[in-house]
Design goal:
Layout: H1 2-35, H2 38-44, E1 46-49, H3 62-68, E2 74-76, H4 81-93, E3 102-105, H5 118-122, H6 127-142, E4 148-149, H7 173-188, E5 197-203, H8 222-229, H9 231-238, E6 243-246, E7 250-251, E8 254-255, H10 260-270, E9 276-278, H11 283-289, H12 295-305, E10 310-311, H13 315-326, H14 331-347, H15 360-365, H16 370-383, E11 385-389, E12 401-405, H17 431-439, E13 444-448, E14 459-461, E15 464-466, H18 474-486, E16 490-496, H19 515-525, E17 531-536, H20 544-549, E18 552-555, H21 563-571, E19 639-641, E20 645-647, E21 650-657, E22 663-673, E23 684-693, E24 698-704, H22 707-710, E25 712-714, E26 717-719, E27 723-730, E28 739-745
Parallel strand pairs: 1-2, 1-10, 2-3, 3-4, 4-5, 5-6, 6-9, 12-13, 12-16, 16-17, 17-18
Antiparallel strand pairs: 7-8, 11-18, 14-15, 19-21, 20-21, 21-24, 22-23, 22-27, 25-26, 27-28
Helix pairs in contact: 1-14, 2-13, 2-14, 3-4, 6-7, 6-16, 7-9, 11-12, 12-13, 16-21, 17-21, 18-19
């Protein structure tokens, strides 16, 4: 009772303090805005890319000139304490009102200590580790002058062809929501000197681009938006995210940046959020290409829809003053947008101290530290997913002769993956270097590149060329690989995508392994040696042939700056793999978009059915199910699940480690609403727990089935309907692996 009283008292005091701070902030901003001209207000709403301001002719720098004139309030992708200090000095000392500049950066999965790509991070299902990764990224970025990040990306992505699937958290809204919350908390904390503001993106539906082609159109019902796509955005803003970025696509045939229903009605109205909205790069200019008017009209539409900051279209700064005179926009709309941006600067402490994030001591002490590197190594090891392990080939013993082969084996530029603009690849070990260190004095390591990424390592598009490294004579590379492999006891192949083949503007029409790599893999397998495939990828890829022919497959994604060491930790058994897929991996590209939580059909086939059924919803040439389902991942040990025990709304299973390794297991809860007022998915993830069990140890894992887990969005809004619910618990989403029980809700 005493504890409850103290907690309540503390919450009340915190609320009073927050209200007092809000009152103080509002008074300060009222006084400041009363002094601002229209042009200065529009300047705060203008975001432009950074240029060097400490080298060359500073006086002629367009960036400094705009800041001094009060026409630029925010800069993106300018890094370094010296450059940012010079910019801030101009803002504070030379602009009329001395309003500090906000500096943003694409800090997506680390600053200089790079963590696994977000898709890989999600495969850890480790919310504490994910929050820690964001906290470390914020600590390093703020030590280099950055106080705003364009992350987390929380777009649900169901189509592996879409390159930016690498930057998100997979296909599930429940897991995506929990990760969104963790990332926001990690970045922002309490807005201390080591925290930066998060920017949730891309609002909304960007991951639903048709055909998996980046920047393509989107069209879906509101029911699907609310049930499948909106939850991670809502979770992120309710976790306190300070800003939101609009997406490039249309929503209800209106570009997201100019969509009043999306921004003002849903984001601000229904979700009661009060941060600021920024466009994606040049998005206001792209409204013109969507066919909705010229730059003047597009800028006015965006402002009236609730967009506050224009990234790099220069539409607000160049057109809104005239639009105000012409009556297309109001002073109240400009004031509201400007206020939201000033509030963000206030929350970040820039008005109290414009140089808050420009401490050179921190720049030396807080970036790429041993503690940060260790954290990145630990979480990278948790992100790897063991897809196959015939005859317990893994973990490998540190004995004999090991051949390391493949274009990712000694590739310094690709280990960190997409969206790592602040990485310093010269500091990071390649896989070859990490293996040499791990095997020193214990086993012999031989290396050969073996092949290029593709047959000529060139992808040609519209007359342009894209050449991922490494590159070399194909026949010579293959001969070298076969020579060392023939002399080895075991072969480790490091193959897959290059980092540049994933991420923004990197959609693929086919997801199979590239020809040059598959040809080499076939030749190596023909030697009859034990072979392990380390599959590097920024998306789910098609591995049907590999599943049939390769003895052991470890999905390593792009593991960040400590990837090489982390791979060695798992490869040689110092760590036990525990990652679980957060995307379904297809048998063929033609299955895309592929996802586990789909709606039923009126002509279903049994899950995993191996025969074709005429006049049913199936393919002629392959089964419907994925090669590897959502939630799937093997371990070096084995786990046994008991039947489910239901006690009211509490569902429990006993999980036992029945193998020979201490290890982590990710226990997953799925629910199916058996009869509802609208069609409901065949099953939905509604809970998960990451547990650690020593060999032979058992643990009871419980889940509370709350109304929040049972509700859905229907024609009349959110409802929880009575009836039967299938409760399923197991190691992944595939029906044969799930224990089942029925919960009846009166």
């Amino acid at each position: 009772m005493k504890k409850i009283f103290l907690t309540t008292a503390f919450m009340l005091m915190a609320s009073i303090a927050s209200q007092a701070e809000d009152k103080k902030m509002n008074a300060f901003i009222d006084q400041l805005m009363a002094k601002m001209t229209v042009e200065e207000k529009l300047g705060q709403m203008n975001l432009m890319p950074g240029l060097s301001v400490t080298t060359g002719e500073e006086k002629n720098s367009p960036l400094l000139k705009l800041v001094a004139e009060g026409k630029l309030g925010t800069v993106l992708n300018l890094k370094g304490v010296d450059d940012i200090r010079r910019l801030q000095e101009v803002a504070v000392k030379q602009s009329r009102l001395g309003i500090p500049v906000l500096v943003g950066m694409d800090v997506i999965h680390g600053y200089e200590t790079i963590f696994p790509i977000p898709l890989a991070l999600s495969c850890t299902w480790d919310l504490q580790g994910i929050e820690q990764s964001a906290r470390i990224a914020a600590k390093e970025a703020t030590a280099d002058g950055i106080c705003w990040t364009y992350s987390p990306m929380v777009d649900i992505a169901l189509d592996a062809r879409w390159g930016r699937i690498a930057e998100g958290n997979g296909e599930d809204p429940f897991l995506g929501s929990r990760i969104a919350e963790a990332m926001v908390k990690g970045y922002q904390g309490n807005y201390g000197p080591e925290n930066m503001m998060a920017c949730v993106k891309h609002y909304a539906l960007y991951g639903a681009a048709e055909a998996g082609r980046d920047y393509n159109t989107v069209d879906m019902s509101h029911t699907r938006m609310y049930n499948q796509y909106f939850p991670p955005y809502e979770a992120a803003v309710k976790a306190g995210a300070g800003s939101v970025m609009t997406s490039f696509n249309v929503v209800d045939y209106i570009p997201a940046t100019a969509n009043k229903w999306l921004i003002d009605d849903v984001l601000r109205g229904e979700w009661n959020w009060n941060g600021f909205v920024v466009t994606d790069y040049g998005a206001i200019g792209e409204i013109i290409k969507h066919g909705l008017g010229n730059l003047d009209q597009a800028s006015a539409m965006a402002l009236k829809a609730g967009t506050d900051m224009d990234m790099c279209s220069e539409g607000f700064i160049n057109t809104l003053a005239q639009s105000l005179k012409d009556g297309r926009v109001s002073m109240a709309e400009i004031n509201q947008a400007c206020r939201r941006i000033l509030e963000a600067k206030y929350k970040l402490g820039l008005f109290d101290n414009p140089y808050r994030f420009l401490d050179k001591k921190r720049h030396v002490q807080d970036i790429y530290t041993p503690a940060h590197r260790q954290a990145a190594r630990e979480i990278a090891a948790k992100s790897f997913v063991l897809l196959k392990n015939d005859n317990h080939l893994l973990p490998l013993k540190k004995l004999g002769k090991i051949a390391l082969i493949g274009p990712m084996a000694h590739n310094r530029d690709n280990m960190t993956g997409t969206w790592a603009p602040t990485a310093d690849n010269t500091k990071y070990a390649t896989l070859k270097e990490a293996m040499q260190q791990a095997l020193q004095g214990k086993a012999t390591l031989s290396y050969a590149q073996g092949c290029n990424f593709t047959n000529d390592s060139i992808l040609q598009m519209d007359g342009g060329f894209y050449r991922p490294t490494p590159f070399g004579d194909a026949e010579q590379l293959k001969r070298e690989a076969l020579t060392i492999a023939s002399q080895a006891d075991v072969i480790v192949c490091a193959m897959g995508e290059s980092a540049e083949m994933t991420g923004e503007s990197s959609s693929r029409a086919t997801l199979e392994m590239f020809d040059a790599q598959k040809e080499l893999l076939e030749a190596l397998l023909a030697l009859g040696k034990p072979l392990v495939l380390l599959n590097f990828a920024g998306r789910p890829t098609v591995m049907t042939w590999e599943q049939t022919h390769v003895p052991a497959i470890l999905q390593v994604w792009f593991g960040g700056s400590e990837a090489g060491n982390a791979i060695c930790d798992v490869l040689f058994g110092d760590k036990v793999p525990s990652g679980k897929l957060t995307t379904s991996m297809p048998q063929a590209t033609g299955q895309e978009p592929l996802y586990y939580n789909h709606l039923p059909t009126g002509r279903p086939v049994a899950e995993g059915a191996k025969t074709f059924s005429k006049f049913s919803s199936n393919y002629l040439d392959i089964r419907n199910d994925p090669l590897y389902p959502f939630g799937y991942g093997l371990s070096y040990t084995t786990f046994d699940y008991s039947d489910i025990t239901l006690d009211g709304r509490t569902a429990s299973v006993t999980v036992k480690n029945t193998g020979n390794y201490d290890a982590d297991e990710i226990v997953q809860l799925y629910i199916h609403d058996v009869v509802a007022s609208i069609s409901r998915p065949i099953r939905e993830l509604k809970g998960f727990k990451r547990i650690h069990l020593k060999k032979g140890e058992s643990q009871v894992v419980t889940f509370e089935i709350t109304d929040d887990l049972l509700r859905f969005y229907g024609p009349n809004g959110y409802v929880v309907e009575p009836g039967d619910f299938e409760i399923m618990i197991g190691p992944d989403s595939s029906l044969p692996h799930l224990r089942k029980a029925i919960l009846t809700l009166k």
